[in-house]
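Re: that backbone. Tokens:
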């Protein structure tokens, strides 16, 4: 029993020990959990504090620049300049002291020399602070900047030279600037610039000739300040400067790309062109500008730009242009890469069809001239299709340009233009459209003398066979282009909403072509010597049986004039060839 009891007791002791271990494990786990939770809370707290500090502008490196002294940034301006105004107003009291806010400055402290600016400023002591609440959008932009430059200037002028003063004329040292709580704080130790005369007279104050001198009893010192914010942002952005909407096979095509840099120092980076046809075949091109190779490295000046040109012959298909600058964003380091790659796939350089037609007109025997009328390209639409690389058409902008028609020399008779005159020579375009279709009719006049036959001036041409016409040709070529301005937002890479509006010009050619015209001129001016006709000399029915006889004989010759009627043929709506 005792042994058994002892056994049960030991068993109970074991259970108690297990419960104790379990309890200790729970406590230990609670402690560990509490420590982990506490560490998590600390980490979250640190992040929140960091965000708070950043929101207060604590992590911003703010550099104050003095206009007229320091180099002013050329790029990366944030918002519009803001104006701050502060003043110090001092009054002299009968107790022999000057007062400014709660400060009293006795005349004896100044050795009775009010114009001792340094002594007076020492008595005023320290800085004054100008604070101003900022627009929330501007404030958010400013606190996002890692490096912020603030340019300070004053609108005060030197009364003698009428030139603007600089900040150091009104402050002893370079002011400091702080951003927090949605406000900007401008801190500086002001100078007190006195009117350098012992006394002031009414003539100076009111412009009157009454010359009564009075002691100065009060002064106000104004401090008008203008602040402009800059943050370059270190970004490269590429844009098509010129890219045509279309081109004719074998014509020369020029594409240009401009790369803008917001880096404050000259940078060296990599670039690459890729020019392919519709099937992806590479197209040979000549490269000019800041870089003369298809790919490689290029230097871009601080805050400047680099221009890249590609020239190639248009193949018998659409063309795709790709351009890359610092594609990986590592040389130099960029955070924003959406504007580093250009691709014209959505608006490829389209192949433009060229029209070539022929037609024939007759110049009859009796026509001195003929005016013809015909549609270019046999009535096909002569079209220019504008495409913009990006953005929208500028409000109020129109597609403007012209289709130009030119007469070429005859191919049959070199150096001669077949037509005396023609119209139109130019068809102007000004339309609110991105697709322009023209169907022009050409009117032209051909005159007989161009064939060497000029009856009016008694210069006659005799052909060996008058039944066969003399044929000459003329040619009208046509072509032209239209342009239209578009606008787009160029992201500077500084802030999501920070974009610059940029203008570009889209260009598109009309279908070019040629109409070759053949004129069949029928010519006959008679002959100087004609073969004499033969006549019969006889009497018909000259028998006894015939009551009527028929006499045939050759008479004496008679001379008479022949009138040759000729005309000018006008063009008709339905021209007969």
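Recovered sequence:
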């Amino acid at each position: 029993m005792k042994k058994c009891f002892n056994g049960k007791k030991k068993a109970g002791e074991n259970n108690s020990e297990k419960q104790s271990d379990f309890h200790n494990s729970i406590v230990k786990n609670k402690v560990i959990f509490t420590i982990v939770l506490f560490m998590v809370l600390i980490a979250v707290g640190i992040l929140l504090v960091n965000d708070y500090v950043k929101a207060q502008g604590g992590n911003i490196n703010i550099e104050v620049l003095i206009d007229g002294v320091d180099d002013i940034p050329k790029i990366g301006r944030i918002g519009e300049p803001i104006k701050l105004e502060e003043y110090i107003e001092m009054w002299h009291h009968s107790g022999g002291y000057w007062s400014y806010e709660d400060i009293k400055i006795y005349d004896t402290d100044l050795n009775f020399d009010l114009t001792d600016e340094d002594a007076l400023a020492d008595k005023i002591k320290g800085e004054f602070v100008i604070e101003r609440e900022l627009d929330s959008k501007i404030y958010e932009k400013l606190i996002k900047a890692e490096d912020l430059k603030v340019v300070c200037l004053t609108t005060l002028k030197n009364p003698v030279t009428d030139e603007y003063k600089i900040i150091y004329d009104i402050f002893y040292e370079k002011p400091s600037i702080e951003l927090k709580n949605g406000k900007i704080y401008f801190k500086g130790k002001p100078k007190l610039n006195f009117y350098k005369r012992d006394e002031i007279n009414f003539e100076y104050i009111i412009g009157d000739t009454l010359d009564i001198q009075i002691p100065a009893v009060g002064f106000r010192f104004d401090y008008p300040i203008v602040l402009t914010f800059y943050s370059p942002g270190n970004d490269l952005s590429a844009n098509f400067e010129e890219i045509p909407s279309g081109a004719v096979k074998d014509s020369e095509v020029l594409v240009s790309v401009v790369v803008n840099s917001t880096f404050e120092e000259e940078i060296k980076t990599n670039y690459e062109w890729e020019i392919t046809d519709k099937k992806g075949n590479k197209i040979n091109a000549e490269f000019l500008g800041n870089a003369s190779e298809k790919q490689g490295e290029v230097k871009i000046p601080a805050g400047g730009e680099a221009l890249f040109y590609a020239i190639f012959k248009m193949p018998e298909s659409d063309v795709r242009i790709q351009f890359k600058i610092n594609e990986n964003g590592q040389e130099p380091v960029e955070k924003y890469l959406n504007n580093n790659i250009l691709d014209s796939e959505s608006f490829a350089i389209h192949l433009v069809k060229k029209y070539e037609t022929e037609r024939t007109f007759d110049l009859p025997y009796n026509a001195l001239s003929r005016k013809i009328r015909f549609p270019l390209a046999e009535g096909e639409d002569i079209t220019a299709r504008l495409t913009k690389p990006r953005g929208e058409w500028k409000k109020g902008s129109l597609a403007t340009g012209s289709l130009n028609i030119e007469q070429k020399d005859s191919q049959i008779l070199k150096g001669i233009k077949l037509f005396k005159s023609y119209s139109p020579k130019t068809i102007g375009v000004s339309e609110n459209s991105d697709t322009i279709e023209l169907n022009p009719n050409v009117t032209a006049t051909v005159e007989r003398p161009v064939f060497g036959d000029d009856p009016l001036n008694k210069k006659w041409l005799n052909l060996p066979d008058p039944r066969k016409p003399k044929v000459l040709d003329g040619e009208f070529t046509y072509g032209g282009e239209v342009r239209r301005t578009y606008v787009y937002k160029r992201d500077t890479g500084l802030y999501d909403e920070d974009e610059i509006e940029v203008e570009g010009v889209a260009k598109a050619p009309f279908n070019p072509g040629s109409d070759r015209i053949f004129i069949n001129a029928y010519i006959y001016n008679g002959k100087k010597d004609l073969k004499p006709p033969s006549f019969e000399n006889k009497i018909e029915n000259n028998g006894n049986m015939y009551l009527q006889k028929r006499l045939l004989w050759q008479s004496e010759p008679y001379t008479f004039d022949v009138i040759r009627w000729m005309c000018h043929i006008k063009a008709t709506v339905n021209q007969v060839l």
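Residues 1-57, 195-214 have pLDDT under 50 and may be disordered. Helices lie at 2-55, 117-124, 136-144, 202-206.
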